[in-house]
Known about the structure:
The chain is an alpha/beta fold. The protein contains 16 helices and 14 strands. The chain is globular. Ligand F0G binds next to helix 4 and helix 5.
Amino acid sequence: MVKYIAEPFRIKMVEPIRQTTREEREEIIKKANYNMFSIKAEDVYIDLLTDSGTGAMSQEQWSGMMIGDEAYAHSRSYFRFQESAKDIFGDWAWFQLVHQGRAAEKVLMPILLDASQGKNVAISNTFFDTTRGHVMMAGGTPIDCVIEEAKDSALRIPFKGNMDTKKLQELISEYGSRIGVIVMTITNNSAGGQPVSMANIKETSAICKKHNIPFCIDAARYAENAFFVKRDEAGYQDKSIKEIIRETFSYADYFTMSAKKDAILNMGGLVGVKDPNSPSLNGVKSNAISFEGFLTYGGLNGRDIDAFAIGLQEGVQEDYLAYRIGQIEYLAGRLDDAGIIYQAPAGGHGLFVDAAAMFPKIPWYEFPGQVLAVELYKEAGIRACEIGSLLMDHDQNGNPVQSAFEFTRLAVPRRVYTQAHFDVMADALIAIKKRAEQYTRGFVIDWEPPVLRHFQVHLKPAA
Ligand code: F0G
């Protein structure tokens, strides 16, 4: 087990957080209708709702903000950004700034998918919710194609986020020219932050080329993915993280990226187009101007663009990545000792605890993952979120969908919490595990909106 994590920084500015009592928290969560999104941040001690936009910027990023150039067109910030992006991703024809990841999807997906041209299928190792949403809004059907091994949370194999390339070829035979794009999500968030191997990226890219299908990377956590490649894939130990990232992107035609993760930014996103002669390039530019802003700022302030340029470089530093992945492994090690099952091995941006294994008596339609999230809040003021049947929502006919997993995700913000916070998380989970037998009932829905219910749903304890 990892004994301690050497933080490659020291702290010079602090943000106070507040401990509440168990009685207060029981009242707060009840008033919030047992919905984690409805709790006020000031009532949370450790906030693990997401790792997106919640990282701590460095002194260099903050000083970069002071030199941000707010010119509407072709600002100095834009050119500094272009230089940094080329250094990280390689010599791509176009890097389009946008305000976050889903904006990148909104710009690109309607260009690659066009139901009127018969392009109405998209395949991924696993679509993230917003990507799935933008595929559907563009008239497409999203199909997930992750390896079967990903569905067994206790199974410890590297690169559990991989595409099932055999199944992919079968899907290509079935859907043929209807497929508008194949998306590789790195790391595979919905499968537990599990990485994808370079061999799998390369093979998927070759399959796309053979069938003339555009290959797009959903690059939210590309640097964490590169760290796993260096650590666990034969032949990459002597390569630098930057070299691994450049190789990764050399296989793709497009990428969409939420910069709120590995670029350690509070807000930002990017679309990449590799080929200067791509028929999609003009469409990307036009959509960006319509939805986001002029080509050289894309919905971001000049100061954010400078922080982005610097964050790209910081997010690929190996000591930082070792510390970050080390934090998650430390927590995983403590859970191993207590016999708590999670999506193993520990992934990139958080730990996905198997709540169905923790509470075997709670049926999936009473949301064991939500029960564990609520208990974590009551126990220690920790805010996590459910990734399971509550998130899965309904199918097109309004029937509830059972998820392959009932996870409670503890997503870890970058450079924010210390090892003592991780002990608080582990102690809380262990305390709940000790009394897990007692939990037999979960939650039922009191009210829900028509779409994306988990953000707004009202729950009540099952009678
Ligand atoms: N793709 C992946 C793999 C993501 O994890 C996210 C966001 C997005 C795209 C969309 O990016 O939020 O900047 O619009 N994931 C966050 C999460 C929200 O909590 O996992 P965005």
